[in-house]
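In the current project phase, the collection of sequences with tokenised folds has grown. One resulting record follows, to show the layout:
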Amino acid sequence: MATNTVTATLTDFMLPTAQVLGIKDGDWIHRGDRRKTLNHSFFALGCARAGLDILEQAASRSKASVTLKSTWTALDRQLSQCRTQVYKAQADVQAITDDGGALAVNHRLQLRAKTIDLAVRCTHAAVIVSKGAANTLEHPAQRVYREALAFSVFGQTPAIMDASLAMLCS
């Protein structure tokens, strides 16, 4: 329903070969999902950074708590590590077609879930430090938090959903 996907049955319809754009194998979409597992992760990483920017701004105030500053430091470190892992895994596209392909795909799924989780946590922290101001739709913390929610489902497959849900329980 969400993608407005439709089906149609054509009877006695002739399509000239010159107008055929392409014919794919029956499992082409599943192979594509394996290769593109991390593609939407970059949006989530950027969203996490935006949340941390809000946190950093709050931490720069003279009356900022030690906890706020240490939270920014910990989340910033996690984001840097996660970004490095995602770039490394994304660069190794060959790994998903090798004998260890299932392991590589599972690793990529875990990374995708990690980027989603990190975006939600960083933007939630931005909402927390913004206090009541984050309740307005125009506030940057509100906007990036809504983006994190959206990025948690962009390009989602059943495998990504499972990895994300499993991360919530760990």
About this structure: The chain has a mean pLDDT of 84. The CA atoms of residues 134 and 142 lie 5 Å apart. The radius of gyration is 21 Å. The chain is about 60% helix and 0% strand.
